[in-house]
Amino acid sequence: MRNLNQNEKITTEKPKADIPYKEGIYFDMPEDEYHKIPYFSRSGADKILFSREQYWHESPMNPDYKEQEENESMNLGSAIHCMLLEPKRFKELYAKYPTPNDYEGKTILKTNDDLKEFLESVGEKKTGNKPDLIERAIEYIDPKEFVIWDNVISDFHADIAETGKRILSDDHAEVLAGVAEAVLYRKNLPLTHEKQNKIHIILENARSEVVVIWKDERTGIMCKCMIDSVRPEAVGEVKSFSVKNYNIKLEQTMLNDIRYRKYNHQYYVYSEALKAIIKKINAGKAQVFGEVDEAWLKKFLEIRNKQFFIMFFRTQAPYQCKSYDLERAESMDATDNAYYDLGRQIWEAALSELQYCYKRFGTSRFIDEDEVVTLKDEDIPNIIYQSSDF
User: Fold this and answer.
1) Residue 138, Cβ density class (10 Å: 0-12 exposed, 13-18 middle, ≥19 buried)
2) Is the pLDDT of residue 9 over 90?
3) Residue (of 124, 151, 161, 160) closest to 139 by Cα position
4) Which of 155, 236, 320, 366 fits a disulfide with 52 by CB distance 3.0 to 4.6 angstroms?
5) Rounded to two decimals, what is the model's pTM?
């Protein structure tokens, strides 16, 4: 790596589209490009352990594969993710529908009567339809004091048409404002360092949507992952959630999510991916693609065993946010804990299943085995406790 000034960037071209993606770490890769890469991922592991056919149905290898359309919940999660991790891109990608509250301190001319009253105040005639009234009023409007609402809406839609921005609903805009305020509030809390909520610290000096491409040494299978937030010493995942059951404590709700969504599996995959790729980059066997600050990259490549944070953001008032550190990487050879080891077992089982499917089906459709299963007691342990008193 050549020497650069501290403010210079390293920029490496990514492989062409018709060339398989090489092992390495990729900065600034578009999300839709990532999803089209036909390599194995953590979400693919969950699907293939659920069902071979489910994996094939949602795999880019499938010629009939179609990307999943986002629903309202996914749209909100994506917006929160972008707002927190990519604030500059958020402003370029999203727009909130204008409301009168956005023009506090100004007089809004919205109805015909509003426009006629204004025209009368400046000595102009007040006859004609609304476009005529607006055209006449514009000549006298001081934008520091007055707003013509029809023009605000017209300009908004023109900007959307030109930029292709996504329009946030009023509900989603309210949630985003609440989450942003919650993070800022915690940042400004006068607490001791030990008690401080460090979500804002985790988000600072971080690169978002970092892609890692690597080859699994045991099976030779090409793998991929896209990590929400990467700092030289830590990685973080942004998760939004809502609460429907107040009978379960808030903290337990988040812990249940960690359990049911198998975030320990995600933690293992990300950790192993980063360890493997950092080792290969340092040995000259993998590359860095995209633009990245050299000082940041140097520190990133020095730390193989990184902390892993899950950052939860509630999408309902009072918009609590909390981070969980799955393992503090205090040394290069930090001891693996039980949930990390279980994550490893899940990942290795999935890789073995995919390896079997490649041998069994090649690149043709994966199918679940058509066979009759004889039910045994151990298949449904509770069945032996059924009462005979009917």
Assistant:
1) exposed
2) no
3) 124
4) 366
5) 0.81
